[in-house]
Design goal:
The complex is a heterodimer.
Chain A: H1 4-19, H2 25-35, H3 41-67, H4 75-99, H5 104-128, H6 135-152, H7 157-172, H8 177-180, H9 182-200, H10 205-225, H11 227-230, H12 236-254, H13 265-281, H14 284-294, H15 297-307, H16 309-331, H17 335-340, H18 343-355, H19 359-383, H20 387-407, H21 412-440
Helix pairs in contact in A: 1-2, 3-5, 4-5, 5-6, 6-7, 7-9, 7-10, 9-10, 10-13, 12-13, 12-16, 12-18, 13-19, 14-18, 14-19, 18-19, 19-20, 20-21
Chain B: H1 3-34, E1 36-41, E2 51-52, E3 55-57, E4 64-67, E5 78-85, E6 91-97, E7 106-114, E8 120-123, E9 128-130, H2 136-145, E10 154-161, E11 164-172, E12 175-176, H3 177-184
Parallel strand pairs in B: 4-6
Antiparallel strand pairs in B: 1-10, 2-3, 3-9, 4-8, 5-6, 5-7, 7-8, 10-11, 11-12
Helix pairs in contact in B: 2-3
């Protein structure tokens, strides 16, 4: 969701910047390409939005009409009706592709309608023949039939439905862990679409919306599909931190120039997940809970890996992906990014320490990491005069300090004083920074 | 991608999308037309969970099968269960095995858990019978009335062909449930 105001402003500024020599005309041209022309931008987006909304309403209405279950129609009629919305939607989408192949509004609207029409069609068949109500299978059929729509019409809704559909399907496979692993194969099928949409401009709404949904549903997919591996001797600890780290680092790497929070899906959710995980790992109890499992020894771990080789291969793949992104971040000398993205490294160290019966040292290490992260964010925020970063840093510090207060058996007076001190600290820093900003303004 | 290539791809996709419901319809129609008919008694269902939305929740009363000699089936494994019709005219499952039987009608289903008679329960894919919105509550009441223990005269007719089964109709007290439901509505 690029802010229209900013683009209009940029387009107004560019000629002046070129004439006074601040920018070359090539650079100005590149900026125009990067942020898009402002003309028609808003109208076009509204047309697309209303097109999709209309398609979703009509498609949803058709599904509801079908849900009424028209008993008076014979099976032959009902079979014919199963095809009616589908054929209508196909005709519409085909006509749109033929007549207006470059209209975003038409492609998105027709793609959304066709996606819903497929759902309506197979739902009606399932009703007519009393097909058993396995929601997972229904969603998988629907998702797989919707997937080509995403590629052929380049619409966003079928891609989003596919992501949600395969995740729900993986969740429904609770009786068969081997089948749930198919989630990863299904996930790979939609990634080229993401790449295609993000290639020219990763800040357009389709790849951004996809990124938000992707990062939000990925944890569910991981939990549903990797059940066999997660609980084996604390595999979940490096895996979850590597997942969060990879999302965050990939976000900074590929969406690093996003203007608003909306444009930074992966780094926002990744950073939140990293801090939350670090907090979980800062509790003594988290590490102690792993001790008994680890006493089973390396032999038990090897057995589990050979039994669930594919699940562990996925785990290894995520660890490698994180490592590659982290090395890339290290090379680009972006130290703040590198430090926050380094959580899996500290978790790995903690795991090693716990294996040698030092869970307390692991807990200390993670606390030191969080503390350094909080102070670092605070200092960087003060340097950049960014109120958001300062508050973020203070929140991290407050979370560590308060968590430790609940760990240690301290009295109410000590806790009360700590709460007040932290609160005063927040207020003071915010007040000082607001004043500084006010003074800086003419 | 040129727009012509895109249109061809679109046509291929449209055919695939039409083929999915068509395939579902054809295979069921074939079973209904050519399949052998079996009468299965239905079991009482938990009245609080009996009805969700616009269908009547069903359960086949006899959903257990003996296991073929020397075979075992894990939960969720595909098995082939033979169907036998008893002297009372109602069908029951005979033997479940890992390969499809020859000459006997059978259903291809997923295995449930082991029972205490050395056999297994079957996860039967017949758990709902769809009704029109307005008729469904009356149908549900009728189905429940005819499924009380001691007064069980509800049954489904299942058409079975090549291991696939399709519900043809649900009967309560000897009448199709749709007729009972519309008779009961004022």
């Amino acid at each position: 969701m690029r802010d229209h105001k900013h683009i209009v402003w940029l387009n107004e500024q560019l000629p002046g910047l070129v004439s006074d020599g601040t920018l070359t005309s090539e650079a100005a041209q590149r900026l125009r390409q990067r942020y898009g022309e402002a003309e028609g931008g808003r109208g076009l987006q509204a047309a697309t939005l209303f097109g999709v909304l209309g398609a979703v309403l009509v498609g949803g209405g058709i599904i509801l009409l079908i849900a009424h279950n028209w008993d008076d129609f014979s099976r032959a009629w009902r079979a014919a009706f199963s095809f009616a919305p589908l054929v209508l939607a196909q005709a519409l989408a085909g006509f749109a592709l033929w007549r207006w192949p470059h209209s975003v509004a038409w492609r998105e609207g027709a793609g959304a309608f066709l996606t819903l029409a497929i759902g309506a069609s197979i739902a009606l068949v399932a009703q007519t023949y009393n097909i058993s109500g396995d929601l997972g299978d229904f969603l998988l059929t629907w998702s797989l039939l919707a997937l080509p729509i995403a590629y052929v019409t380049r619409a966003t809704l079928p891609a989003l439905l596919y992501l949600l559909g395969i995740t729900a399907w993986a969740g429904a496979q609770w009786t068969s862990n081997a089948e749930a692993l198919g989630y990863w194969g299904l996930l790979v099928l939609i990634l080229p679409w993401w790449r295609l949409e993000a290639k020219d401009n990763p800040y357009r709404p389709p790849p951004i919306i996809f990124a938000w949904i992707f990062a939000l549903v990925l944890p569910f997919g991981v939990t549903a599909s990797l059940r066999d591996a997660l609980d084996v001797q604390g595999t979940w600890m490096p895996l979850t931190s590597a997942l969060a780290g990879a999302l965050f680092l990939a976000g900074r790497r590929f969406w690093g120039e996003g203007i608003s929070r909306m444009q930074k899906p992966l780094q926002t959710l990744g950073a939140l997940a990293l801090v939350a995980l670090a907090l979980v790992f800062s509790f003594d109890e988290t590490w102690r809970a792993q001790m008994s499992d680890w006493r089973n020894g390396a032999g038990a771990f090897k057995d589990a890996v050979s039994l669930h080789a594919f699940a562990f291969a996925i785990v290894a793949l995520w660890l490698l992906l994180w490592l590659a992104l982290w090395i890339d971040s290290f090379r680009s000398r972006d130290w703040a990014r590198t430090f926050l993205g380094a959580l899996p490294l500290f978790v790995a160290l903690g795991v090693a320490l716990t294996r040698f019966e030092h869970p307390f040292a692991a807990m200390l290490l993670l606390n030191a990491y969080l503390f350094a992260l909080g102070v670092g964010t605070l200092v960087a925020g003060l340097g950049a005069q960014s109120l958001g970063m300062v508050n973020g840093g203070m929140l991290i510090l407050a979370a560590v300090i308060l968590s430790r207060f609940f760990d240690a058996d301290l009295g109410f007076i000590a806790r009360g004083v700590a709460f007040i001190a932290l609160g005063v600290g927040f207020l003071a820093v915010n007040l000082v920074m607001m004043r500084g900003r006010g003074a800086a303004r003419p | 991608m040129t727009s012509k290539a895109r249109l061809w791809l679109f046509a291929a996709m449209a055919l695939l999308q039409l083929a999915a419901p068509a395939g579902m319809i054809l295979s069921r129609e074939r079973t209904l037309a050519q399949g052998e008919a079996f009468k299965f008694r239905t079991a009482p269902v938990d009245p609080y969970d009996a009805f969700r939305g616009r269908y009547v929740a069903l359960q086949i009363a006899d959903s257990e099968a003996a296991l073929a000699k020397g075979e075992s089936a894990a939960y969720g494994q595909t098995v082939y269960a033979t169907i036998e019709t008893g002297a009372d005219g109602f069908a029951r499952f005979g033997l479940a095995s890992l390969s499809p039987p020859k000459e006997k009608p059978f259903l291809k289903v997923k295995a449930g858990v082991a029972n205490d008679k050395g056999g297994i329960t079957l996860q039967l894919p017949f758990d709902r019978f769809y009704m029109e919105e307005a008729k469904a509550p009356a149908a549900e009441a009728a189905y429940r009335e005819h499924n009380r223990r001691g007064a069980q005269d509800a049954y489904v007719i299942l058409r079975v062909l090549d291991g696939a089964g399709v519900i043809e109709n649900l009967y309560v007290g000897g009448e199709p449930i749709a007729a009972v439901a519309s008779g009961a509505t004022p």
